[in-house]
Amino acid sequence: MTSLVICDDQGMVRAGFRSLLESEPDLEVVGEAANGEEAIEVVTRLRPDVTLMDIRMPVLDGLAATRQLMEAGIGTSVLVLTTFDLDEYVFEALRAGASGFLLKDAPAEELAAAIRVVAAGDSLLAPGVTRRVIDAFVRRGDTSTKPVDARLGQLTPRELEVLGLLARGLSNQDIGQRLFVSEGTTKTHVSNVLTKLHLRDRVQAVIFAYENGVVTPGEDQS
């Protein structure tokens, strides 16, 4: 059973999500919070497997709450809930430690599937999401003068290639097809990349790749 806490300042939104999720046999909503401060208290106390986190909330926003939960090592996976007009916050949410994000108007089955993905320790980063992360990265300004992280030198040429494809939002299956290797081999490469770079998941790998020039904004994503 996957335990959940829903953090959103709108009671109707929380009630709607609770109603949708409680119909799933493997998901259990164990708590709710109406602002970032409450979110930290409730999540710290209940330690759910997954926290659904709104970004714009009073007292303390979802970005700050996510950052504090990650720094405290609570062990919950944060799935950020957002709308298209909040895209400028997505990059910062991922940097803060969120495992991915989902649009608030996503269908119920998509929400449940996303929760299962992050509960399993993976990240939710579809190609379309990656493009929006890249857009946010571009808006942050040029970081080309930033020194390249020394950890990059630990990767083999093939692992560097995998990192580049991963940063474009390709799935393990897509990467395997592109490199003519099995999906299992791809998983091994991705795991080695994350281990060598000391990164938690694919989301952090995407950010790392763009910050260190492995791929560049505006590059062909096909």
UniProtKB/TrEMBL annotation:
UniProt xrefs under PANTHER family: TRANSCRIPTIONAL REGULATORY PROTEIN NARL-RELATED, TWO-COMPONENT RESPONSE REGULATOR
Response regulatory domain mapped to chain residues: 3-119
Entry's Gene Ontology BP terms: phosphorelay signal transduction system; regulation of DNA-templated transcription
Modified residues (4-aspartylphosphate): 54
Key words of the record: DNA-binding, Phosphoprotein, Transcription, Transcription regulation
The keyword Transcription is annotated on this UniProt entry: yes
Protein name: Response regulator transcription factor
MF-aspect GO terms: DNA binding
Residues of the HTH luxR-type domain: 148-213
Keyword Transport in record: no
Domain of life: Bacteria
